[in-house]
């Protein structure tokens, strides 16, 4: 397995591996590389939905497709279809499913239908972003807690399209999206590195400060998280698969392809409860 690094510590193209036929040792290498490089790209793969699910089960425990949105079909309840023809856009910076008490460990995304051009996806390194903050701002962020709320994005979908009954997540049927609190700085459970764990998609406010202070703090952190030196960008090709560590990244899908069709299939690995520095 050969890695071409996209940055000193963030992002890598992986060569010479067939994910559908990989050995246990090869997948152990992939799993270690995922933690180290945070987002990995694999070209020329031949995965279908069955193969994607098999791969996910070899790398960890799969979740339902999404707490609110059902699977792509009855045979694949783990596969979340992001279809531009059905409002399947992700054109806001976010980290997957942080509005649940136990967000996913990571995600595996497969290109199914690509537009003739556009539709690139960007990932931000939340650990590098944290480490490049000035020391006083890091100290402040270390002590903060934020609220994450999925209602803004998925509340209507749960009520109107799922009839108030979502998927089974962590052993319980999701019937409402109660806001949850997570530390603003998350300590990675495998490396101990700290990273920013707030995102414009799902973070609503900082706990214990005024609305104006919350808005100012979050705007500062978002602007810093998405600085160009913290980002890698992937131009999709047929057969591409991306994996990312949800505990140390945020991502954004460009919505620049007009009325062209774009379909991506995603699965997520069960994660743990975020833990902060204190």
Automatic annotation (TrEMBL):
Its cofactor is Fe(2+). InterPro entries: AtsK-like, TauD-like_sf, TauD/TfdA-like. Residues 5-268 form the TauD/TfdA-like domain. Keywords: Dioxygenase, Iron, Metal-binding, Oxidoreductase. GO terms for molecular function: 2-oxoglutarate-dependent dioxygenase activity; metal ion binding. GO terms for cellular component: cytoplasm. Pfam families: TauD (PF02668). The keyword Iron applies. SUPFAM superfamilies: Clavaminate synthase-like. Belongs to the TfdA dioxygenase family. This is Taurine dioxygenase. It comes from Dactylosporangium siamense.
């Amino acid at each position: 397995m050969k890695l071409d690094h996209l940055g000193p510590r963030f992002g890598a193209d992986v060569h010479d591996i067939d994910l559908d036929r990989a050995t246990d040792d090869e997948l152990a290498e992939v799993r270690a590389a995922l933690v180290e490089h945070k987002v990995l790209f694999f070209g020329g793969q031949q995965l279908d939905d069955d193969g994607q699910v098999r791969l996910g089960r070899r790398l960890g425990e799969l979740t339902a497709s999404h707490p609110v949105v059902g699977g792509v079909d009855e045979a694949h309840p783990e596969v979340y279809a992001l279809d531009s023809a059905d409002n399947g856009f992700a054109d806001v910076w976010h980290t997957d499913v942080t509005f649940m008490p136990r967000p996913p460990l990571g995600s595996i995304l497969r290109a199914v239908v690509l537009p003739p051009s556009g539709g690139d996806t960007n990932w931000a390194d939340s650990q590098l972003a944290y480490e490049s903050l000035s020391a006083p701002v890091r100290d402040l962020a270390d002590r903060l807690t934020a609220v994450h709320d999925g209602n803004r994005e998925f509340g209507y979908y749960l009520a109107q399209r799922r009839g108030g009954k979502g998927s089974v997540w962590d052993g319980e049927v999701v019937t409402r999206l109660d806001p949850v609190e997570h530390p603003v700085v998350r300590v990675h459970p495998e490396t101990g590195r700290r990273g920013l764990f707030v995102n414009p998609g799902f973070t609503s406010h900082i706990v214990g400060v005024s609305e104006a202070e919350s808005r100012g703090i979050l705007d500062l952190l978002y602007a810093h998280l998405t600085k160009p030196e913290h980002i890698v960008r992937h131009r999709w090709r047929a057969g591409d698969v991306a994996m990312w560590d949800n505990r140390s990244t945020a991502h954004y899908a460009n919505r620049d392809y007009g009325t062209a069709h774009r379909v991506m299939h995603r699965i997520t690995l069960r994660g743990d409860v975020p833990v902060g520095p204190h």
